[in-house]
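Title: Prediction job returns without error message
Component: structure pipeline
Severity: low
Priority: P3
Assignee: unassigned

Description:
Job completed but the reporter wants confirmation the result is attached to the right record. Sequence as submitted:
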Amino acid sequence: MSLPAKMQEIIEDFGAVEGQDKLLLLLELSDELPPLPPHLAEHPELLEPVPECQTPLFLSVDASDAEHVRLFFQAPPESPTTRGFASILHQGLDGESRQTVLGIPEDFYNAFGLAAVVSPLRLRGMSAMLGRIKRQVRQAS
């Protein structure tokens, strides 16, 4: 699986810990999700909902620059798992090219080894986030 260096580093971080420590790392990443920029925070109607997530998650993709896709997420602080997934996608893909984003495998989340500590439903939510990101990138192409 060919992933951008930033995403590969996150996978390596998860590979370095076991069991519940993977969940703790995911929760730490949730604190690193940046807030929305003012142009989106003031206009939430510009965000796309991801109803497959168990908690309210909204995203926006700016793929107007083919070489630097920008990702924006909004998830409530009381949903740290969902925020952690969004943070993984943000840290791993924000600023990458359209081609790189579109090349991420749909099941990339398996590489994090979270299946033992996070429900399959939550993992599907992460896959749904990626699917919506890819759709928005394709629409911008």
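Comment from assignee: result matches the submitted record. The CA atoms of residues 19 and 116 lie 7 Å apart.
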